[in-house]
Amino acid sequence: MDDKQIAYVLRMIEERDVRFIRLWFTDVLGFLKSFAIPSEELEFAFEEGVGFDGSAIEGFARVQEADMIAKPDPTTFQILPWRPESQGVARMFCDIANPEGTPFEGDPRWVLRRQLQRARDMGFTFYANAEIEFFLFEGADNPVPLDQGSYFDLTPQDVGSEFRRHTIHYLEQMGISVHSSHHEVAPSQHEIDLRFADALTMADNIMTFRLAVKEVAQEHGVYATFMPKPIQGEWGSGMHTHMSLFEGDRNAFFDAADEHHLSKTGRAFIAGVLAHAREMTAITNQWVNSYKRLIPGYEAPVFVVWGRRNRSALVRLPMAKPDKEQSTRIEYRAPDAACNPYLFLAVALAAGLDGIERELELSPEAQDDVYAMSPEERRALGIQSLPDSLEDALELMEGSELLAEALGEHVFEYFLRNKREEWNEYKAYVTPFELNRYLPML
User: Fold this and answer.
1) What domains are defined for the chain?
2) d(CA 150, CA 415)
3) pTM higher than 0.70 for the full model?
């Protein structure tokens, strides 16, 4: 642990009158967890960690293995801007350890750290940024849109503009840089795009973002949701994620001699992601509702292809300017805004590195609208589709050696078990659709 960074944090706590420290971590499903300690306990927390009962956390430990240690990461120290300045509150993300000090395999942050170390061993640093979409409603039990706007709309009474401004202000106070924001396609749907960061920081930033949006919504008297598809017949909320590998200061995806300025490494990375896309879908789209978004007709990716200007592609290669080689990247369009970002980035990186290690060849670019093709045309071209239900996604995940290795036995088995329970509950639920359709006629 960096002694200089620890000294900086302890000094800031004193100078900024911080009274409490919230220690943050996530469970396997990606829900943010937290407990607070008084600021005078922080120095000891840096030295020894803070014990807590892991058996109460989804996917962590059984009762007989309950003791866990939260070790605060001083590089993630930030003061919470939505708390009072006097006697303020700060947060730090934690790495979770077993009582003997070894990393806990059920910690999603550790899952990502393992894959980042694998990338470093191959000479790479993994960077990402996320375009995060969400809806604003009148309430959690009243999903009524606050506007009838569409893509890039701006109206004099647009409550969303002020909401986005307020959210960005909080994010920037916490050191999270924002690239842009705008109204999205659906009524009361919004998008805020975060700037590139190393993948661990990006996962932390996504978790912070989701809480900040919820905090601002509460302050504005509205409800914010990252539910993938809350309104029937409208666009769902995705989290298109841009990814790149660097070797030192050089973008490993860039090659000036290639027609697309895409290097052999970049091509193999995309090939790896496409090869494992179907089995990764349970991680990138982990809820029953996620598969209401992944249907044709709403620009959500359904087919396992790549392209440049093709918005129907699962993986897109955004155009990079000739003098902007550092911006060469791929855009993975499957994840929704409610996935666990640590697990998603871990498996996406594992898939891409597998493509590099095995020197996989990239399939031809999809230049036509894949949605407009007939099933026979897609079949003739060998184009596969993503699973169309959580059940199908779990079956593909269960057979994946890559995911079992990337996630580790603990997370892999718990995730499958939890999600199967969710699917079984959904199968047994009699929906309003069934009642409206069948009760009057049967």
Assistant:
1) 3-103 (3.10.20.70), 113-433 (3.30.590.10)
2) 36
3) yes
